[in-house]
Amino acid sequence: MRWPKNWPIRPISPPPWTRQEPTWRGARPGLIAEALERALARPSGNWFVLAASSEITSAKPFGRHVAGQELVAWRTPDGELRVGPGACPHLGAPLCDAAVDGAALVCRWHGLSLGDKPTAGWARYPAYDDGVLAWVRLDRVGGEEPSEAPVLPQRPPLESSVSAVATVLGRCEPEDVVFNRLDPWHGAWFHPYSFAELRVLDASDFLVEVTFRLTKRIGVPVIARFSCPEPRTVVMHIVEGEGVGSVVETHATPIGPGRTAVIEATIAHSTRPGFAYARHVAGAVRPAMRWAAKRLWRDDIAYAERRFELRKDGRWPG
Ligand code: FES
Ligand SMILES: [Fe+2]
């Protein structure tokens, strides 16, 4: 029986796991390493993804280390993002425990107010909210020519999309995360619960045909392209199939030596009528999306951590 061509889902009957077509011949270490080199050479303007936009509110400061720098982030009453050093310049109290007072933070220890005016050597960092993610610019850490705004991937219109952000911490460096994402060949082997029938259509363009598995026997076939707009970001664009225009952005933020936060934004887009309904129940959809991303990331983080471990010992074959 022919399956209607424009149906978003189709029956699948993948072979037993060990009987799949091996992909190791296509996954040439040199090819992936070259793509990684090209990504690492792109400018970032010294911008780092700090967190999901929704994680930072005016109710309570948010703390995170980026490249060994302790940071604190909060929002002003009108919702503007603020980021600054995370230690109080007086006696070092953690500012993630401070109180938000208007546009400023008030230190719990002795009441020093820190806001838009530089105080005792403490000064805010440039910050940018792209509607899904919060970014900070750290010029001393980045060491590049600073730019006005971060390099953002092409995204579907946020008003007609559902987005979710998942964060996973790993014992590796950002480049290990980027390398893992630039190896689409591992998809159906390493994540058989999520992907089936993966074929790399164009290795130089990282164009991949893959079926997202919904159940054992049903999947959603798509064509996706992977690219790196800047050195710590890998983006998967759905270019054909259900959800064209949707993106998965993987951002790798260095936390400290050998520690990386993977902050992954999924921005799902569809022009199907049912999708408008899904947007209304986005609150219910989001945890499911986050769960799916986390499951993949448990495996992918293990891959990135393994690469880091082998690199450290000079045993990485790639
Ligand atoms: S440590 Fe912050 S005011 Fe004293
Ligand atoms: Fe993966």
Automatic annotation (TrEMBL):
The keyword Cell membrane does not apply. Keywords: 2Fe-2S, Dioxygenase, Iron, Iron-sulfur, Metal-binding, Oxidoreductase. It comes from the Bacteria. Transmembrane segments: none annotated. Residues 1-24 are annotated as: Disordered. GO terms for molecular function: 2 iron, 2 sulfur cluster binding; dioxygenase activity; metal ion binding; monooxygenase activity; oxidoreductase activity, acting on paired donors, with incorporation or reduction of molecular oxygen. Residues 47-136 form the Rieske domain. InterPro entries: Cholesterol_7-desaturase, DUF5914, Rieske_2Fe-2S, Rieske_2Fe-2S_sf. PANTHER family: 3-KETOSTEROID-9-ALPHA-MONOOXYGENASE, OXYGENASE COMPONENT, IRON-SULFUR DOMAIN CONTAINING PROTEIN. This is Phenylpropionate dioxygenase, large terminal subunit. It comes from Allokutzneria albata. The lineage of its organism: Bacteria, Bacillati, Actinomycetota, Actinomycetes, Pseudonocardiales.
